[in-house]
Amino acid sequence: MSSIRKARFHREGIPTPNGCRWCGDAQENHGNQWVLSVGLHSWEPPTAAQRLKRMKARRAERSAVDAGVSPKDGAPRSVQT
Length: 81
Fold this sequence. Notes:
Layout: E1 33-35, E2 39-41, H1 48-66
Antiparallel strand pairs: 1-2
Region (Disordered): 58-81
């Protein structure tokens, strides 16, 4: 029987597509991290589904910024003229 654990990120923003499966930190500077969902862990590669979801989220955030919309609340950003 396998147990399903949800990853909880301790960072703000969207992790890079290849960030740790559990915390989203990059492999280069990961070391041992602690997060509530899995406790102390070493870097583990994200699943293919996590990579895809992260890439789509980053693309959507860039599109929102390019459209002049705040990615956090969907409100238009103020434009200085």
